[in-house]
Each structure stands twice: as structure tokens, then as C-alpha cells.
Fold this sequence. Notes:
By secondary structure, the protein is mainly beta.
Amino acid sequence: xxxxxxxxxxxxxxxxCTVHAQSDPLFFQQSANRMLVxxxxxxxxxxxxxxxxxxxxWVGFPGPTTAALYTNGFVKEIxxxxxxxxxxxxxxxxxTNNLKLNYAYYVPFEDVAxxxxxxxLGVMNNTYDETGFNTxxxxxxxxxxxxxxDPSLLDLTxxxxxxxxxxxxxxxxxxxxxxxxxxxxxxxTYPDQSLVxxxxxxxxxxxxxxxxxxxxxFIPGFTWHNTRKVNTCELSATxxxxxxxxxxxxxxxxxxxGMMFGVNFTxxxxxxxxYDYGFDNLSxxxxxxHEITLLHNVPVNTTYIRTVLRFFRWKMF
Length: 317
């Protein structure tokens, strides 16, 4: 990602040119796709869910895109969630494919709360190919910009690597509170860093459901993401109507604002759309980012979920 920024746009993080090689993609709709950042959320809700999420970063730049496809469900006989996910992140010469099997074990505390422990096992392929990447800096808006670097001055390289990959996470839930923590690429540390080697990513998040009346809930949320010395925080305010319609406003540092709207058309289909825009050095070169999620839901009304975990089906967009 940072090489892409060097070639075609502004250097967001200064001289650190390999940050994206170690950073997981950040979806704006994290609350709708918790399994992508925390294996402990696998199977939450009890139903069988299959979803596709596509994010188009920085519209106006050529091509930075992230896509994710996943499916997961809850197996009451073993009190566990099982899921499979695939994430593809393309940003200029940097491309990452991550295929992972997720498992979560749920520990109930009667009908008061439950704790889930999750593990993700899979493989990751990272490819960094500057040799086949062509930039276009002839547009007048790029000329004389001190942040734009001429690609001819760079030492172009090509690297690729496929490695085993492991994630770990936990999540604690009450009828109104959700708190989670996860770490990805747990076997890799700072000395391992390279353009095609991941670094550990840490996620922490929390949401609290405040009923407003019979139909509406207000749900404030907080998310923190860390990769080495880069910290990203997000504050969100969600208004939900009977779990069928959701509207969210969010702020993510530095100076990034967004909104999200989701609707359940039936019990089986859900669509969520979001738009975010950053008021930073990149703003004059792009028109913001779009993200859309299509989800298919197969209801599973098990006795275990209805009785032992009565609030287990507290679903969120």
C-alpha cells in the first residue's frame, strides 16, 4: 500500500514505506463483519450466514480494492462456531490473499453472559510486484506535488511468499454489552518484517446497546487497531430499528468521517452500504471510499439458543 502511495499519491505515513505489507485491511463495516477481524465472533447469532463485502478505496485512484467472502454457523452439539473466510486486498503492486478456517468455542454464564474463544488457522499469500505495475502521473493535478515520487527513481522489485497464518481472539457478551479483542499473524514479529511478511495486528472493540423505546436502540461503539507504531481509533453512533434497519455515523482518525445504512429485506437477505471520506492530504485526489456487504442468512432456531443463551441472537449490522 505504501509503495502504491509513493507511486501515485501522497505519503500518508511519511518515510515508513512498508506499513501496508504488515497491516490488515480496515473495513468501515467492522460491526457487520466481526468474523473478519476476530475468530471469536464466528457463529455468533446461531444462524448460518454467508456474506460478500467489497470496498473500493479512494475513488479517483486507479484500483485499490479489498474484497472478503465468508460463511459461518453455530453447531449446538459442540457449542461452537465454525466458519471459512477469504480476504483479497489489492493496492497497487501489493496483493494479499488470506484463506482461513475459524473456530470459536462458547462458554455461557447461565443466561447472564457468555464468553467465546476463537482461533483462525490458514494460509496467506503476499505478492509485491513493482515490475509489472505502471503508474500514471501525467495528470496536471499531480505535477509539482512535493509528495509525488517519480517511479523511475525507485528500485523496482518483485517478491512473493506463501506462509501459514494464525489468529486468536476472545469476545465477551451480555444482553447489552459487547467487548472483543483479537490478534492476527500471531507467529510473526518485528524482526520478520519485509514487503511480503505480515506483522501482528491488534484489534479491540466495544459496543453498548441502549434501548430508546420499543422499536429503537442507540448503540455507541469504539474500535482500536494497532500495527507496530500505527494506531487507528474509530468512534461510532448507531441507531437501529427492530434489527431491520440501521444507520451509523462514525469518525476514524485521522480526520476520516463516514456513514452506513443497512436494511433486512427479508429474514434471509441483508444489504449494508457505507461511504467514508478523509479530510487529509489525500482528499484533493479522491472522492472517498465505498463499501457494500450482501448477506444471506439461514435461520437456525435451536432449543439451545432459545433457552440457554436467550440473548445469543442479539444481531447487529
